Amino acid sequence: MTAPSVADLIRVQESDFDLAAEYARLAGLSGTGALVSFVGQVRDCNQGEAVEGLFLEHYPGMTERAMADLVAEARGRWPLTGVTLIHRVGALKLGEQIVLVLVASGHRGEAFAACEFLMDTLKSRVPFWKRERRGDGQSHWLAARDSDAQAAARWQEKPEL
Amino acid sequence: MIQVKFFAQVRELVGESALSLPADYPDAEALRAALAARGDKWALALGADNLLVAVNQVLVGLDTPLKDGDEVAFFPPVTGG
C-alpha cells in the first residue's frame, strides 16, 4: 500500500457526499488548471427490470487499500495536482449517489484520462459488491459484466494515452 | 493460525463470514480445496471459475503460498462503481 499524497482524499462511507464541497477543495490546489468529475448514482432500472435500491457490501481494510493503490497508480501515470475518490456502502435508494471520482491536474488531457482510468479499474479491482432490490420485492447480487472487465483491460494494453 | 473471510454470494452460500483455521495449507488453492470439501454449498461457493482470492488484502493467484498469520479472503468478481 502506497501512502496517499496529502492532496488526495480516499474514503469509504455510508453517508452521502457533497460534490460542490469536494470540487472546491481540489479547485483550490496550486497548479490546478483542469478538474474532471465522475459521479455514479443508483439507476431506476437495470436490464429492463424496475429497481428499488441497492445494498453495497465491501471488504473493510482491503477496500481502502485497493483504492489508495489505484490513486497511486494514476499518479504514476499522469501529473495530477489532487484526487478525491469516495465510494458509499450500505443501503442506497434510487437516484442516490454511489461513487465520486474527482481529478485535478494542470491540463485537461491528464484529468480526463486519470478519471476514466480510476473508474474503470475501481470497477474490476476494488472489493465492493452490489445487491439489487427489485420492484417485485426480490433481491439478488449483480453479476460482473464483461464490458467492465474490458474497460479495465484497455488500461493494460495502452498505458499511455 | 490463518484468518479466512468470505464476502457477498460466497459468504451467503457458506453461511459464515469468517473462520480461524490452523496454518496447515501450503497455498491458497489447498485451503480452497479443503473448504470446498466441507459440503455441497461450500463446493458451489468455492468451485466457481471466477472465484477471486486475496491474501493479506491484496488480490493474488490461487498458487500464492500461505503462512501463519495470513488473512485469506474468497469472494466473487467485484461489482462496485
UniProtKB/TrEMBL annotation, chain A:
InterPro entries: MoaE_sf (IPR036563), Mopterin_biosynth_MoaE (IPR003448). Its EC number is 2.8.1.12. It catalyses: 2 [molybdopterin-synthase sulfur-carrier protein]-C-terminal-Gly-aminoethanethioate + cyclic pyranopterin phosphate + H2O = molybdopterin + 2 [molybdopterin-synthase sulfur-carrier protein]-C-terminal Gly-Gly + 2 H(+). It comes from the Bacteria. Residues 140-161 are annotated as: Disordered. It is an enzyme of class 2 (transferase). SUPFAM superfamilies: Molybdopterin synthase subunit MoaE. Keywords: Molybdenum cofactor biosynthesis. Pathway: Cofactor biosynthesis; molybdopterin biosynthesis. Belongs to the MoaE family. Heterotetramer of 2 MoaD subunits and 2 MoaE subunits. Also stable as homodimer. The enzyme changes between these two forms during catalysis. This is Molybdopterin synthase catalytic subunit. It comes from Pseudaeromonas paramecii. The gene is moaE.
TrEMBL record, chain B:
InterPro entries: Beta-grasp_dom_sf (IPR012675), MOCS2A (IPR044672), Mopterin_synth/thiamin_S_b (IPR016155), ThiS/MoaD-like (IPR003749). Gene3D superfamilies: 3.10.20.30. It comes from the Bacteria. PANTHER family: MOLYBDOPTERIN SYNTHASE SULFUR CARRIER SUBUNIT (PTHR33359). Belongs to the MoaD family. NCBIfam families: moaD, PRK11130.1. This is Molybdopterin synthase sulfur carrier subunit. The lineage of its organism: Bacteria, Pseudomonadati, Pseudomonadota, Gammaproteobacteria, Aeromonadales. The gene is moaD.
